[in-house]
Fold:
Amino acid sequence: MNIGGAQVQVTRKKRTESPLFQKVLGLGLALLLVILVTGIIIALSGKSPLVAGQCMIRGAFGTKNSVAETLIKSVPLLLSALGLTICYRTGLTSVGSEGQIIIGGLMATIVGVKLAALPSIALIPLGMIVGAIGGGLWASIAGLLKAKLGVSEVINTIMLNYVATYLVGYLVDGPLQEAAGFYPQSDMLGQNAWLPTILSGTRMHIGVIIAAVSVVLVWFLLWKLPLGYQMRAAGSNPIAARTNGINVAKNMVLAMFLSGAFAGLAGSIEIMGLHHRLMNGFSSSYGFDSMAVALLGGLHPVGVTIAALFFGALRTGANTMQRTLQVPVSLVNVIQGLVILFVLTQALLSRFTIRVIQRYAGKKEEDHHA
Structure:
């Protein structure tokens, strides 16, 4: 194409792993654009972008309690995004973390209510394991349909989100409703099923430690184990993977199970660590936000950790910003949407190269006359 008298050629690069510094630079530019556009939106509303930013930072990190709340809100985002990292690296596009979180919370509730007499040392691990298995099996439905019948996992996971939401809605208003029968919620979990706190005076629980350990486990799985190599190979080039003897269908199902297991673990931690009973909306859209976290983190456990903390800080700091400046909390949704837009844009543009193949139109004619 001809731009300003210069001949510009746009070509698509081969699908290769970009160097780390290019990823960091691209994500940094995306975040800079997010901050710039968000500042313009706040300024148009008559508020000071600098003051709004200060309020958000102070609300997220200003006190011991605010730091604890930021970490608490980061836990389900991080766990779900780690699961999606495994899934996306295997070439699958899951939109079902929200439903898997809900199922994980449901299974943990059943364990915590029905087996409340068990000691904490047995009940807490059991609740988390059952929650993770429940989320994993729920995600495996879409994985099996994709592997065996070629049905789109995107459509299936979206529909499974609705099924999980309405299933829990039915249960808390029926078979699992609290004995008093006043509200659509379950009975309180036995206190032996409550996650212990690790910072006095706050709600910060051991789920923070579990999430940190999960980061190491996912990194080790994807980059140090043969299974992780097979998953990444299946996602990068399934035809070449099959040629080299890798069972792509098996890896798809396993990746979906692991993705759902981490989301189910997040749901069980939310119930056992914070709410202590099952109710509608307990997942707070963490599953949907975790997709943005996984993308912003570049599908790498370290990047995902940073992105989860960023989104957790947004959720915590938004309340302070609203109280101080009367800026709507929904601005956080705008910021998250901009993050997804710009991150996806930079990921798309990174697959193309732009070259100026002729600096000036007519250069050949000038050379010829010379």
